[in-house]
Amino acid sequence: MPATRLDGKKIAAEIRSEVAADVETFVSGGNPPPQLAAVLVGEDPASQVYVRNKERACAKAGIASRLDRMPASTTQAELLAKVAELNADPAVSGILVQLPLPSKANGGTGIDERAVLDAIDPIKDVDAFSPVNVGLLMQGRPRFLPCTPHGIVQLLHRTGIETNGKHVVVVGRSDIVGKPMAMMLAQKDSTCGPAVANATVTIAHSRTKNLTETCRQADILIAAVGRPEMITAEMIQPGAVVIDVGINRVDDKLVGDVAFAEAEAVASAITPVPGGVGPLTIAMLLHNTLMAAKMQAGKE
Ligand SMILES: Nc1nc(=O)c2c([nH]1)NC[C@@H]1CN(c3ccc(C(=O)N[C@@H](CCC(=O)O)C(=O)O)cc3)C=[N+]21
Question: What's the rounded Cα separation, in Å, for the pair 62 and 215?
Answer without folding.
Answer: 42
